[in-house]
Amino acid sequence: MDTASKRKARAALSNWNWGAIAAGVVVALASQILLLWLGDAVVTSVGDKHPEGGFAFWVVLVQLGSLFVGAAFAAFLARPTLVLGGAAIGAFTWALALILGSAIAARPLAGWRPDSAAAAAWTTFFGALLSLGTAMLGGVLGGRRSHRDAGDFEGDRALITDERVITVTPMG
């Protein structure tokens, strides 16, 4: 790895905004819990009132979507300067949400188990692996969105820092 690449990687990972990551985790977990409750309510209200294989698909979709949204929110707040920074924020949001979400979601999902333990294990593993990708993608897109939104401030070009907004107006 050359010096420029090392410098870019160090710059991307040096300015952590743990508040933004924590906010992204809260958004991811809240949306995950809410959508799991929605799925449980639908499953117990229709059909034979017992979750089956379709619920496993719902759980994976919920995990993918909620971690994407949480990571995008975290990156939007953190405003990473590089794509690698957005992906890293997404990965950290995923890791923290996975750890906390495992403890939180274990109870609502305790009554549901697929027919085989192997199906439950593979669903959990692939859902977690796919959600890492969506969280990193959410971090990249959220970081890009924060820079695009920072471009205009009351019609002028602006540079937004942590302390102030500096506007730049064209001369002439």
Secondary-structure map:
Blueprint: H1 3-14, H2 18-45, H3 53-78, H4 83-105, H5 117-149, E1 152-153, E2 156-160, E3 165-168
Antiparallel strand pairs: 1-2, 2-3
Description:
There is one protein chain. The protein is mainly alpha-helical and 172 residues long. Helix content is 71%, strand content 6%. The chain has a three-stranded antiparallel sheet with strand order 1-2-3, with no helix packed on it. β1 and β2 form a beta hairpin. The longest helix is centred in the C-terminal third of the chain and has 33 residues. The protein is elongated, with a radius of gyration of 20 Å. The relative contact order is 0.15. About 5% of the residues have low confidence.
From the structure above, extract its key features.
5 helices; single chain; three-stranded antiparallel beta sheet; mainly alpha
Could you give the order of strands across the largest sheet? 1-2-3
Number of helices: 5
Residues in helices, as a percent range: over 70%
Q: Strand-residue fraction?
A: 5-15%
Low-confidence stretches: 152-159
Q: Major sheet, described briefly?
A: 3 strands, antiparallel
| Terminal-residue CA separation | 46 Å
Number of distinct beta strands: 3
How are helices and strands ordered from N to C? Answer: HHHHHEEE
> pLDDT average, as an integer?
76
Rg calculated over all Cα atoms: 20 Å
Overall geometry: elongated
